[in-house]
């Protein structure tokens, strides 16, 4: 779609509660989501971030280059109307959390993973009361029902905007524990990505880098960083 506006600005409107909401204005007209909802945001920081994405567009508007807009659209068109389904979808990453499945060999890789992952599993147990079972290999192990219930409570406590980013981070890393650690500020996006790729990085050390795999990793790292920034802006 060709760029049809000159200026992208932020406007403030009254919310249903005492807190104001913030709109993106294109030449003074409010932006709507694909579902025809007015794009109203909880913080000026998030609104400014999305306005900057609109302002950065060239002659053609490219939605792929607007990650915060796409996440906000997902919140207003989907998550707000189907929180229970979204929470359940995110929880599945806890049922099969990647941090619970370390390599069986070689010993050096096993050591790296356990040294990096065990402290975060311990953090999840302390922070949420979610003690997760860990194993070697890829054969599925069941997690304690009380631990999954604790994780569900932690996920459900997130606001709609955090849920959208949480789902993206868990999808990229394969780990709900890593996603919650980013959302809680326990680790940053770069740390989460590195922790999710210990196996891949170990293999790259042994056999060298594959250009296509490296490009994919860079894209995923960028998306994870954008999701973490979205959470921060939505809470600023």
In short:
The protein has 236 residues and is α+β, with helices and mostly antiparallel strands. The protein contains ten helices and six strands; from the N terminus they run E-E-E-E-H-H-H-E-H-E-H-H-H-H-H-H.
What does this structure look like?
With 236 residues, the chain is of the alpha+beta class. The protein has helices at 44-55, 67-77, 83-95, 107-128, 145-156, 160-173, 176-183, 189-196, 198-207, 211-235, and strands spanning 8-14, 20-26, 29-30, 40-41, 101-102, 135-136. Strands 1, 2, 3 and 4 form a 4-stranded antiparallel sheet that branches. Strands 5-6 form a two-stranded parallel sheet. Helix 1 crosses helix 10 (211-235) and helix 7 packs antiparallel against helix 8. The longest helix is centred in the last third of the chain and has 25 residues, at 211-235. It is globular and about 60 Å long.
Mean pLDDT reading: 96
User: Quick one: how many beta strands?
Assistant: 6
Distance between the termini: 32 Å
Residues in β-strands, percent: 5-15%
Helix vs. strand class? alpha+beta
Q: Can you tell me the overall shape?
A: globular
**Helix and strand element order:** EEEEHHHEHEHHHHHH
Low-confidence stretches: none
Query: Roughly how much helix do the residues carry, as a percent range?
Result: 55-70%
Biggest β-sheet, characterized?
4 strands, antiparallel
For the CA atoms, what is the radius of gyration?
A: 20 Å
Number of helices: 10
């Amino acid at each position: 779609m060709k760029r049809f506006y000159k200026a992208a600005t932020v406007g403030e409107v009254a919310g249903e509660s005492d807190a104001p909401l913030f709109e993106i204005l294109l030449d003074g007209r409010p932006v709507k989501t694909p579902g025809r909802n007015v794009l109203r945001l909880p913080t000026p920081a998030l609104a400014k971030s999305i306005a900057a994405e609109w302002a950065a567009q060239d002659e053609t508007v490219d939605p792929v280059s607007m990650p915060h807009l796409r996440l906000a659209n997902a919140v207003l068109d989907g998550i707000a109307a189907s929180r229970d389904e979204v929470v359940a979808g995110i929880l599945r990453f806890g049922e099969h959390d990647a941090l619970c499945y370390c390599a069986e060999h070689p010993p050096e890789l096993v050591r790296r993973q356990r040294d990096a992952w065990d402290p975060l599993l311990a953090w999840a147990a302390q922070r949420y009361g979610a003690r997760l079972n860990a194993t070697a290999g890829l054969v599925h192990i069941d997690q304690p029902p009380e631990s999954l219930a604790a994780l569900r409570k932690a996920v459900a406590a997130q606001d709609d905007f955090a849920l959208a980013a949480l789902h993206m981070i868990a999808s990229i890393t394969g780990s709900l524990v890593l996603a919650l650690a980013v959302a809680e500020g326990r680790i940053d996006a770069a740390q989460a990505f590195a922790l999710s790729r210990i196996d891949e990085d170990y293999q790259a050390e042994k056999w060298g880098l594959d250009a296509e795999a490296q490009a994919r990793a860079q894209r995923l790292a960028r998306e994870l960083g954008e999701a973490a920034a979205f959470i921060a802006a939505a809470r600023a």
